[in-house]
Design a protein that fits this description.
This protein is mainly α. It has 18 helices and 2 strands. It has 2 domains: 344 residues, Na+/H+ antiporter like fold; 44 residues. A two-stranded antiparallel sheet has the order 1-2. It is globular.
């Protein structure tokens, strides 16, 4: 047994840590959550499952109740705000120092994402041009980054790293597009006063960034207690507040990489030279002081943005998204009348918008960019692998379900949209996997 596993608890903790660090794990857990939700919705406990989500929670002060919403609402506006906060952190990191920081390199995934949003919306509107069903045009616009990357990582080394980077950048731009659609088209009546209060708190966070404040607590208090709460009350969707708050988190370091290396080397030398206690595992006061200094300097060398993103990612992947899936993926198929599914074109518009629209939009806009020499293909990408990525882009699960809740108040339309999402996501995921797997086999033979 290695030194890091010398305690019995490590036999339990280490496999869990290894699973969490595996890229495929997030998609796997999300998939299991979807299956559980479907089983619950089609079981004898179906009524209990739906009734549980209707329990209401709020805060009481001086005999008055504030922010009283049902559990389903808290999950979609509260927990999912955390998901969008991490999306915002990823967006800012990519813009500051990632794939979106180089304009030429960013053009191709941006074009692919735009194509993957415009064409699906157009296809949906062809089938649903008017009435309440028209509101669902935003549903097939989104790609589920967790599922899409999960399928891609299942292929392992058969897929070049460039394809994974391209799909990640595409999905992040796609998420930004979804956020903008929610902000401009899926908001209720707006309370200007609450919106201004929220923007005021956002300004405080921005000024705190510029003033050099790096305390996570500072941003948490003003972000949750100020921006998120005010936006929730304003009518502008609270997830927008989460993305805006993420953009105020500092992305710079106080200690450069070279200075950090020199500083830590000096402290490690001092740590080695000081008299030890020899009473393992205790340390001397001087050793403790040196280790404190190492921790302080290490914090200075890590951007708060990356620290938050790194620490929150497992929580979002393994807690928040599965809970969201459990709350939103439960569609009862036992009592569905086939005529009921097709008495509108919602299911058809969503399914074709995702499966055909996403694939064609991503493929066509990317191909045009390359043909017009606006941007080159990433190394290892060709038309066949682009087709496979386009098919994976049609996995619109999490974001599509989220927009469904905003687009429709009619339960029948929600059910139809969910069926369309499930059908397109499963078919697109399987076909994308087959295309990219065959591409990998061809490369091996050559």
């Amino acid at each position: 047994m290695s030194h890091s596993q010398k305690y019995q608890i490590d036999r339990v903790v280490y496999p869990i840590q290894k699973f969490i660090q595996n890229e495929k794990a997030g998609g796997l857990v999300l998939g299991i959550s979807v299956i559980i939700a479907l089983l619950l919705a089609n079981s004898p406990w179906s009524d209990d499952y739906h009734h549980f989500l209707e329990h209401r929670f709020g805060f009481q002060f001086d005999g008055r109740t504030y922010l009283e919403y049902n559990l389903h609402h808290w999950i979609n506006d509260g927990l999912m705000a955390v998901f969008f906060f991490v999306v915002g952190l990823e967006l800012k990191r990519e813009i500051v120092a990632g794939e979106l920081s180089n304009p030429r390199k960013a053009l191709l995934p941006i074009a692919a994402a735009i194509g993957g949003m415009v064409v699906p919306a157009a296809i949906y509107l062809i089938f649903n041009p008017s009435g309440e069903v028209q509101n669902g045009w935003g549903i097939p616009m989104a790609t589920d980054i967790a599922f899409a990357l999960g399928v891609l990582y299942l292929l392992g080394k058969r897929v070049p790293l460039a394809l994974k980077v391209f799909l990640t950048a595409l999905a992040i731009v796609d998420d930004l597009g979804a956020v903008l659609v929610i902000a401009f088209f899926y908001t209720s009546d707006i309370s200007v006063l609450n919106l201004l209060i929220g923007l005021g708190f956002l300004l405080i966070m921005y000024l705190g960034n510029k003033a050099g404040i790096r305390s996570i607590l500072f941003y948490a208090i003003f972000g949750i207690g100020g921006v998120w709460t005010a936006f929730l009350l304003s009518g502008v969707h609270a997830t927008i507040a989460a993305v805006l708050a993420a953009f105020t988190i500092p992305a710079n370091v106080r200690l450069s990489e070279n200075d950090y290396i020199l500083t830590i080397k000096n402290y490690l030398t001092r740590f080695k030279e000081v008299d030890s206690n020899n009473k393992i595992p205790t340390l001397t006061n001087e050793q403790l002081h040196i280790l404190d200094k190492i921790k302080i300097n290490t914090d200075k060398a890590i951007p708060p943005l990356q620290l938050l993103e790194h620490s929150m990612h497992p929580m979002v992947t393994f807690i928040i998204l599965p809970i969201f899936a459990l709350a939103n993926a439960g569609v009862s198929v036992l009592d569905i009348d086939v005529k009921q599914i097709f008495n509108t074109n919602v299911a058809l518009g969503v399914a074709l918008g995702l499966l055909i629209g996403k694939t064609v939009g991503i493929f066509l806009f990317t191909w045009l960019c390359v043909k017009l020499r606006i941007a080159p293909f990433p190394q290892g990408m060709n038309l066949k692998s682009l087709l496979g990525l386009g098919l994976l882009g049609s996995i619109g699960f999490t974001m599509s379900l989220f927009v469904t809740q905003l687009a429709f108040s009619h339960e029948e339309y929600k059910m139809q949209a969910k069926l369309g999402i499930f059908a397109a996501s499963v078919i697109g995921g399987v076909l994308g996997y087959i295309v990219l797997k065959s591409q990998g086999k061809e490369k091996k033979k050559s």
